[in-house]
Amino acid sequence: MALMDLEHCPLLDELMHDLHQLVVKEILSHYPSNYKQSAVIPLLDLAQQQHGGWLPVSAMNEIARVIEVAPIRACMKSQTFYSMFNRTKVGKYHLLVCGTTPCMIRGSRDIEDALLKHLGVKRNEVTKDGLFSVGEMECMGCCVNAPMIAVADYSKGSEGYTYNYYEDVTPKRVVGDSGDVEKRRSSSDGTKP
Ligand code: FES
């Protein structure tokens, strides 16, 4: 008997839809009913997790409908203000280079250039294998160890995504043969533990 294609199973889609509705209800229950808009950040966070690390416009429109505000008022403003919300698709590992002055003075542009060249993408493009994308984040609060990068890891799904921060990075440390990028690529395709 052929195995059911779970990714395209209508019953599973329906169950996931019901589950998401319950989570949305639970989030809204934390706020007075006349202040539904206060739930905008947790709802954007939930939607981003459900979409593999980014927020399509359709998700923001749906959130605006649920919290009864105009999309531009809360969703667009919040999503464009907080750099942890992504407006375009990102890779399983989204590499964020600090773009604030102390890190720039200490060479963060060279780090970004090395990453883009090594991966063969432009900023905010995803590599063909879907593993990596490169973006920018403002000050990560560790300027004393500039330049900094953060790696947002969406490989563990909606419940387990992580942000890891790396200090004193150099182009060699991130893109060399034993650099962080190749280590993550190897661990993702199973060629190394
Ligand atoms: S400027 Fe990069 S961590 Fe503060």
UniProtKB/TrEMBL annotation:
PANTHER family tied to this protein: NADH DEHYDROGENASE [UBIQUINONE] FLAVOPROTEIN 2, MITOCHONDRIAL (PTHR10371:SF3), NADH DEHYDROGENASE UBIQUINONE FLAVOPROTEIN 2, MITOCHONDRIAL (PTHR10371)
GO biological processes: mitochondrial electron transport, NADH to ubiquinone
Iron-sulfur keyword on record: yes
Family annotation (InterPro entries): NuoE-like, NuoE_dom, NuoE_N, Thioredoxin-like_sf
Family to which this protein belongs: Belongs to the complex I 24 kDa subunit family.
Listed cofactors: [2Fe-2S] cluster
Gene Ontology cellular-component terms listed: mitochondrion
Keywords: 2Fe-2S, Iron, Iron-sulfur, Metal-binding
UniProt-recorded name of the protein: Uncharacterized protein
Origin superkingdom: Eukaryota
